[in-house]
């Protein structure tokens, strides 16, 4: 179920279940969690998912969501039963075309295939369900956002259990086909390549999307409602689909002026990070989410980001995540700075590109913004804790860490790292330890002290990153032209912490 709701199992308990599943000779139940340090019972053990086919019907008037999800997976052990993470009411489950027994409790869908699933075998699971997602809350909140004209299935680190059964952890990525039927006149936006619409005989229209690259479950999304959809072609030939809620009001113009520049931002970041890792581009602007999220191929932005005019910095941040966070995803949620620090640094690179402040100027300003006694310096980006996963320090001190690394290893090695790291880890997962080892090997430098200082030591580091002698210049450091917009973006990005 929800990652947060699964904190009841300790890490040791989850680890023992994983050990049992991996060493026993007889078939065993799959573990109810992967063993994430922050959310030990998130995801499930015993299988890897290759593909989700999500075929749904949604009625905005009643918030009823119904349909089937077909899961193609391969077992990693002899399985007597297995879990899926899901909140909604299930009416039937089939495993390899045979009716399976199942139970639901606390957001876990426990499936008994009525026989052993042998290790290394391909498994097809079909789950049929119907329910009202907005009626489900976990720890006092619901990730499913009902709107005046539809709904938004968008959140981090947890959204999948509100709309499709899954192995809900970033370490089990899969490809997706997503199709949703809605009353004709309502629009649906999702990830990947748009496959068009099909009229149904009941007066409804089915919208179809396909994601060709593996995707973490929390990055899959749907936005349903009244949207203006714009389609075009990026300079690299990829399809671009942007969508703008008809409820944007006065923010509409600024949202369009920002998001329509996504291919331009992407083209620039390709020069920094290497080839764009996915098959499509775009963005969605809508009220009602309170944050921006890097949904794979098609980021989603709350209208508030455009309240003071165009904002290409939030676009640079979310597009930066397509490399850092989406293509290369966290190994565990404690590694979140690898997502947010580099996406924030993408804003600083974009600022320099458009002539509104260099990366060094932004670094100097952020370093000087927080006094030494600020609580900001007590949050450790390298292990912020589940409660501080989206704290501003994960973003800003994370970006300072990146700039400190640049200063330590020099621009030649640094910009090689920005391209070689996402290439080496493409479509996979990575930990902080792996990143440090990679940076040390590429640069030929020992970097433990640098990362210990910036990621794991409370308090303000004595020397500003990349800028020996900052104190002597502090009186003359002025706010970069970009910084108010970037800082405004940061506050809203951090605002989706629950």
UniProtKB/TrEMBL annotation:
**GO-annotated molecular function:** alanyl aminopeptidase activity; metallopeptidase activity; zinc ion binding
State the UniProt keywords alphabetically.
Answer: Hydrolase, Metal-binding, Metalloprotease, Protease, Signal, Zinc
Fetch the InterPro entries from UniProt: Aminopeptidase_N-like_N, Aminopeptidase_N-like_N_sf, Peptidase_M1, Peptidase_M1_aminopeptidases, Peptidase_M1_dom, Peptidase_M4/M1_CTD_sf
Q: Name the Pfam families on file.
A: Peptidase_M1 (PF01433), Peptidase_M1_N (PF17900)
Q: Which residues form the Aminopeptidase N-like N-terminal domain?
A: 51-219
The EC number(s) this enzyme carries: 3.4.11.2
Instruction: Pinpoint the Peptidase M1 membrane alanine aminopeptidase domain residues.
Output: 265-454
What catalytic activity is recorded?
Release of an N-terminal amino acid, Xaa-|-Yaa- from a peptide, amide or arylamide. Xaa is preferably Ala, but may be most amino acids including Pro (slow action). When a terminal hydrophobic residue is followed by a prolyl residue, the two may be released as an intact Xaa-Pro dipeptide
Q: What is this protein called?
A: Aminopeptidase N
Q: What organism is recorded for this protein?
A: Saccharothrix carnea
């Amino acid at each position: 179920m929800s990652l947060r709701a699964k904190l009841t199992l300790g890490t040791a308990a989850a680890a023992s279940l994983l050990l049992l599943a991996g060493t026993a000779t007889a078939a065993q139940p799959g573990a109810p969690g992967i063993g994430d340090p922050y959310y030990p019972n998130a995801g499930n053990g015993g299988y890897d998912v290759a593909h989700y086919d999500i075929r749904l019907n949604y009625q905005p008037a009643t918030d009823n969501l119904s349909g089937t999800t077909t899961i193609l997976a391969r077992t990693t052990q002899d399985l007597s039963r297995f879990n899926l993470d899901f909140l909604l009411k299930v009416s039937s489950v089939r495993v390899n075309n045979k009716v399976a027994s199942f139970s639901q409790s606390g957001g876990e869908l426990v499936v008994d295939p009525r026989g052993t699933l042998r290790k290394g075998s391909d498994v097809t699971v079909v789950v049929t369900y119907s329910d009202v997602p907005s009626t489900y809350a976990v720890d006092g909140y619901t990730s499913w956002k009902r709107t005046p004209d539809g709904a938004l299935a968008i959140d981090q680190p947890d959204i999948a259990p509100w709309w499709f059964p899954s192995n809900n952890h970033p370490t089990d990525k899969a490809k997706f086909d997503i199709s949703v039927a809605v009353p004709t006149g309502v629009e649906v936006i999702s990830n990947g390549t748009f496959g068009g619409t099909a009229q149904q005989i009941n007066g409804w229209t089915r919208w179809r999307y396909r994601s060709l690259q593996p995707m973490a479950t929390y990055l899959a999304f749907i936005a349903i409602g009244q949207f203006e959809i714009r389609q075009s072609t990026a300079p690299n030939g990829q399809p671009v689909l942007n969508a703008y809620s008809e409820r944007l009001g006065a923010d509409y113009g600024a949202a369009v002026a920002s998001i329509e520049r996504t291919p331009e931002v992407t083209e620039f970041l390709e020069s920094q990070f290497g080839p764009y890792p996915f098959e499509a581009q775009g963005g969605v602007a809508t009220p009602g989410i309170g944050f921006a999220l890097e949904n794979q191929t098609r980021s989603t932005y709350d209208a508030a980001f455009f309240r003071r005019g165009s904002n290409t910095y939030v676009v640079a941040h979310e597009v930066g995540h397509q490399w850092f966070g989406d293509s290369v995803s966290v190994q565990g949620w404690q590694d979140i700075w690898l997502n947010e620090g580099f996406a924030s640094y993408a804003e600083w690179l974009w600022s320099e590109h458009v002539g509104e402040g260099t990366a060094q100027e932004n670094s100097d300003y952020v370093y000087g913004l927080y006094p030494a006694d600020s609580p900001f310096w007590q949050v450790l980006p390298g292990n912020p804790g589940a409660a501080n996963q989206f704290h501003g320090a994960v973003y800003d001190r994370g970006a300072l860490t990146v700039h400190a690394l640049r200063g330590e290893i020099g621009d030649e090695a640094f910009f090689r790292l920005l391209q070689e790291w996402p290439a080496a880890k493409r479509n996979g997962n990575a930990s902080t330890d792996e990143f440090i080892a990679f940076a040390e090997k590429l640069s030929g430098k020992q970097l433990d002290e640098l990362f210990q200082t910036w990621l794991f030591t409370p308090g303000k580091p004595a020397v500003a990153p990349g800028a020996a002698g900052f104190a002597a210049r502090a009186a003359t450091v002025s706010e970069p032209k970009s910084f108010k917009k970037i800082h405004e973006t940061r506050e809203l990005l951090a605002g989706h912490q629950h």
